[in-house]
Amino acid sequence: MLILGVETSCDETGLALYDSAGGLLSHVLHSQVDLHALHGGVVPELASRDHIRRVIPLLDQLLQQTDRRTAEIDGIAYTRGPGLAGALLVGAGVARSLAWALDRPALGIHHMEAHLLAPLLEPEPPAFPFVALLVSGGHTMLVQVAGVGRYRLLGESVDDAAGEAFDKTAKLLGLGYPGGPALERLARQGRQGVFRLPRPMTDRPGLDFSFSGLKTQARNLIRRHEGTEDAAADIAHAFQEAVADTLAIKCRRALTDTGAGRLVVSGGVSANGVIRTRLDDMARAANAEVYYPRLDLCTDNGAMVAYAGWCRMQVGECDGLDFDVRPRWSLASLQPPAAD
Amino acid sequence: MSTADTPVIIALDACTEACSVALTTGGNVFSRHAVIPRGHARELLPMLDGLLAEAGVSRDAIGLVAYGRGPGAFTGVRISVAVAQGLARGLGCPVIGVSSLQAVADVAGRDAGPHRVAVAIDARMGEVYWGLYERLEANQPLKLRDEEAVLPPAAVTLPTGWTEWQAAGTGWAVHSQALLAALGTAPARILDQALPDARCLLPHAVAAWRNGTLENAASARPVYLRDNVTG
Ligand SMILES: Nc1ncnc2c1ncn2[C@@H]1O[C@H](COP(=O)(O)OP(=O)(O)OP(=O)(O)O)[C@@H](O)[C@H]1O
C-alpha cells in the first residue's frame, strides 16, 4: 500500500510517500522559517499563502525522486489538526480533492498522533505500550500509548510549550527565530553553575508542566546582568539545564507511574542534544529504553503523516468527501483504527 | 454556448459566502449553488460528486477545471484554488482561474446585451474589491476595464462616458451610500445580492480552451488584491 502524506499545519509544507512494503520512500519539505523570521514568529496568513504555492511543486518533486506516478498512490493522508486553520485547509483541500480525482480514499490525521508514531519509522521501532513525550513549539505532553489510537493524556503544559519557552527566551537573549537551535548553540559556551533556574512543578506530584515562569526568570537574569560579558551564554545554559532536568524528572515519573519500560520522544525540541543526553541518562537509571525519530523527522514533516495514515488506512479507515479541519483537537479523543 | 470542440469542463467557486459548482458536457450545463458561509470545505466535493452523477459523467472524462481565483474571503479563495489544484493534478488536466469580480459582473450581465457593470464585493475592514466591466456589443464577453483593486468606498471612480450602468455585488449592500456619494451618479439598477456562480466561469473556460491560455495545477494561484496582511 502506497500512502501519500501531506502536512501543512503550521510553517512547514511537508509531503512524503510511505510504502507498507518498502517503508519510507522519500519525504520533501519546504520550511517557511525565513519568511516568518522577519516578523519574529509565525504569521498565520503568510503561512497559508505560502503553503498554497508549495504543495503541488513538492508533490511533483516527491514523485520524481521516487519514480512514482499519482496513479500508484493507494491512499492520501493529510493533517486535519491541531494547527492553524487556514494552513490546515490548504493541505486538506489539495489532498482531499487529489484523492477524489484519483478515486482513492483519504484520511485526516491528528498532528500529534503523527508525531508520536514517528519513531516507529525507524529501523528498530519501539513496541507498544510506551510513554510518549511530545515536545514542540505548540505542545508539551506526556501520553500513555497502548496502541495506535489508544492514548491517555498523563500531563501537559499549563502555559507555554517547551519550544515556545525556548523561542521566547532566545528572543530575550537577542537570538533569531526560531530560537531553539540558536539557544542550544549559545548554551554550549555557557558555564555550569553560574546561574540556577528552578525546575518548575517538580516539587509536587503530577505530570503537568509549566514553562512560562522559567522564561520570566530568565528575563530577570538578563536584565540584571545586562552588559556582563558571557552572561547571555550562562543564562542560556541555565535555562536549557532547567528544561532538560524538568523533562527528565517528569518522564521518569511517567515511566514509574505507568510501569512502562519504553519512552518515545518526538517533536521539534527533541532535536536538542542536551535534552537527549539527559533523557538517555534518566532512562539508563530507570532501566528503560528511549526512542527518537531521526532528526529530520523530529520537526513537522509529511513522513509521519503518511505513516499515521497507513496505520489507520490499512484497516480501511477513511473520510467522506468533506474535509473539515480541526484547529483544536484533543489527542485523547482519538479512537483505535476502524474501517468506515 | 457551443462546446463541440471542448472537453467536459468543471467549474468551482468558494471565494465568497456562496459555494458553487458547474459542469458542461456536449452543450448541456449542470450546476449547483448554495450560500453556506464557512461550509465550503464540507460541501464543495460532495456537490461536485453529485453533479457528476447527475450529468452521468465520470471523473476521468474531465478535461479542464475552472476555478474562482478571488478576490474574496482569504480562506474561501484558498479552498477554491487548493481544490482546483488537487483535482487538476489528479486528473492530469489544465486549469483556468476566473476573477470573482468578473463572475459577479457576469451574473449581472447574463442576458448577453450591452452592459456596463460596476462590481463591488465587500472586503471587510471598510474596503471593497472593485472592478469595472463592459460589453459594448451584444454576445461579447464582459471585459474588465482598467484594473481590479481593493480600496475604500470613498475612493472609487467611474470612467467618463459611463452614463448607463449597473451596480452588482455585496459591496453595494454594505457601502451603497459611500459608493454612490463617491461616484456622484446613480446606476440603472443595483444587484447587491449578486454572488459569483460557477456557471459563469464556464464560458471563460471555453474561451481559454480555444485560445490555449490555460495553466497547469502548480501555477493555479489565488488573487487576494489585499496583500498587506502582516500589519
Ligand atoms: N535544538 C533545539 N533545542 C530546543 N528547541 C528546539 C531545537 N530545535 C527546534 N526546537 C524548537 O522546536 C519547535 C519547532 O518544533 P515543531 O516543528 O515540531 O513544532 P511546531 O510546528 O512549532 O509545533 P506543533 O508540532 O506542536 O504544531 C520550535 O519551538 C523550536 O525552537
Structure notes:
The complex is a heterodimer of chains A (340) and B (231). Chain A is an alpha/beta fold. Helix content of chain A is 41%, strand content 19%. Chain A has 2 domains: 2-116 and 297-333, ATPase, nucleotide binding domain (Nucleotidyltransferase, domain 5), CATH 3.30.420.40; 128-292, ATPase, nucleotide binding domain (Nucleotidyltransferase, domain 5, 2-Layer Sandwich). Chain A has 10 helices and 10 strands. In chain A, the strands form 2 sheets. In chain A, strands 3-2-1-4-5 form a 5-stranded mixed β-sheet, sandwiched between helices. Chain A has a 5-stranded mixed β-sheet with strand order 8-7-6-9-10, with helices on both faces. In chain A, a hairpin with a 4-residue loop joins strand 1 and strand 2 (12-19). Chain B has 231 residues and is an alpha/beta fold. Chain B folds into 2 domains: 8-100 and 195-219, 2-Layer Sandwich (Nucleotidyltransferase, domain 5), CATH 3.30.420; 104-191, 2-Layer Sandwich (Nucleotidyltransferase, domain 5). Helices cover 29% and strands 27% of the residues of chain B. Chain B is built from 6 helices and 10 strands; from the N terminus they run E-E-E-H-E-H-E-H-E-E-E-E-H-H-E-H. In chain B, strand 6 (115-122) and strand 7 form a beta hairpin. At the A-B interface, helix 2 and helix 3 of A face helix 1 and helix 2 of B. Bound molecules: adenosine-5'-triphosphate. The site of adenosine-5'-triphosphate has 23 residues of chain A, from helix 5 and helix 6. Adenosine-5'-triphosphate (ATP) binds next to helix 5 and helix 6 of chain A.
